[in-house]
Amino acid sequence: MVFLLPRRVRDKLWGEPLPPSDSFQGQTVLTTGVSSGLGRAAAVHFANLGANLILTARNLVNGHTAAEYVETCAGIVGQGRVQVLELDMSRYSSCVSFVSQLKQQTASCAGHLDVAVLNAGLINVDFKLSPEGWEQTIQVNTLSTTLLGLLLLEWMGQQPTSQAESGPPHIVFVTSRDHLDPDITPWEEYAAQTGGLLKYFSDEQNWPRGVLDPNYAVSKLALTYAVESLCERAVRADGRVNVVVNTVCPGLVSTSLGRSMAESSRWLKVLVPIHQRLLGKSADFGARFYVKAARTSIDEHGKYIQSLFTEDEYRRLSAPNLRSQTALKVRGIVWKEIMTDLVDKIPSLSGLNLAVGGH
Predict the structure, then answer these.
(1) pLDDT tens across 91-100, in order?
(2) What span, in angstroms and rounded, lies between the C-alpha atoms of 48 and 14?
(3) What pLDDT, on a 0 to 100 scale, did the predictor assign at position 5?
(4) Where does this protein have coiled-coil stretches (predicted)?
(5) Rounded to the nearest 10 degrees, how much is the dihedral formed by the CA atoms of 37, 40, 44, 45?
(6) CB-based contact 145:173 (threshold 8 Å)
(7) 8 A C-beta contact, residue 168 and residue 243
(8) Residues 336, 341, 346, 347, CA torsion sign
(9) Is the pTM of this model over 0.90?
(10) How many CA atoms lie within 13 A of 181 on its CB side?
């Protein structure tokens, strides 16, 4: 067992170093979910490092407020380096529309997208269905994030290779160390009972009562499975990596993501802020891992970027959920279920080879 307390204290006190100030000079960086917290902090870092920014928020007013904050912090007010687009991760139609607008936006300026940081996510304490009919945490953290990643991967992989110094474009998926936590041994049985794993976890009868963050760990593990398949799609038949894809865990960060947990009881209103204050690092420190993930080499394609574990520790801890025979079967079930729903609701995807492991 890995004792995490001293490592959380270390990460809270000593941040990941930032790269040189011109590391993203002239590059275009997309960051989703920037209204506050990690997304906004990451945008400030990328702006300070020379990037032109495209930011998203569910509400354009909040998005423009965040953009003003970023411009002020980075000292780039009036330079036209920050653009804001609307993105509602609870709806597939919004994801598709957003990518279409993104293509138009980049065509009118840089002509390409160098980095996409898919940061938007949520934690729900109470059961809620999305407009697409899935439990909201599963919808946002797994299904819509996978859709967004797939659309971006197909487009970014076809961009002109004009970034000789920076190498291939990057897509960074924000996950969590919580993907290590679920016990997946009964998941094949769950899928057989309901016709799908995500269907099982989207059924209110299976909603775990009395749990602080129901479905959060499940949604992040399901996303990790999906990203593994997307990583395979990013490699051409000749072995060349078209887009460098990574997952990243920013660690325990004091942000508003746990707001719904804190508001679920009087005691948690007191305890959650105390816990975050004592062990949670700042959004500035957490977002530095996004920057690190956006600068990985081709050799690091598919790597999980984090600081809590050594590579050997993570390999051992993740083996049951990612590398066991059960994990491989479960991954196939999840990928097939995700792609079946996406193709059913977004017919334009039907022309892609979306089989497990297909490129």
Answers:
(1) 999 999 999 9
(2) 20
(3) 83
(4) none
(5) 60
(6) yes
(7) yes
(8) positive
(9) yes
(10) 12
CB 289 within 8 A of CB 307: yes
Paired strand residues for 84: 55
Place of tokens 């959380």: 8
* Summary mean pLDDT of the chain: 90
Say which residues have a Cβ less than 8 Å from residue 155's Cβ, sequence separation at least 6: 99, 103, 113
Choose the weakest-confidence range: 140-149, 236-245, 266-275: 266-275
64 phi/psi in degrees, rounded to 5: -70, -35
Task: Give which of 226, 76, 233 is closest to 141, Cα–Cα.
Answer: 226
pLDDT of residue 137: 96
Q: Is the model's pLDDT at 161 over the cut of 60? A: no
Which residue, chain included where needed, has tokens 């508003």?
256
Beta bridge partners of 56: 85
Distances (CA, A) of 71 to 79, 132, 289: 9, 35, 21
Structure-token match 């492991």, residue found: 357
Backbone angles phi, psi at 91, to 5 degrees: -130, 130
Q: Are 146 and 61 in contact (CB under 8 A)?
A: no
Strands 52-57 and 82-86: parallel
Q: Name the percent of the chain in helix, strand, coil, to the closest 5.
A: 50, 10, 40
Using CA atoms, how far residue 229 sits from 247, 330, 358, in Å, is: 12, 13, 8
- Separation of alpha carbons 233 and 354, rounded Å: 9
What pLDDT is recorded for position 84? 97
CB atoms within 10 A of CB 89: 26
- Rounded Cα–Cα distance for residues 56 and 134 (Å): 22
Give the max Cα distance, the chain. 58
pLDDT value of residue 359: 38
In this model, does residue 262 exceed pLDDT 60? Answer: no
| Confidence band of 202 (pLDDT split at 50, 70, 90) | very high
CA distance 277 to 132: 36
Element (H, E) at 207: none
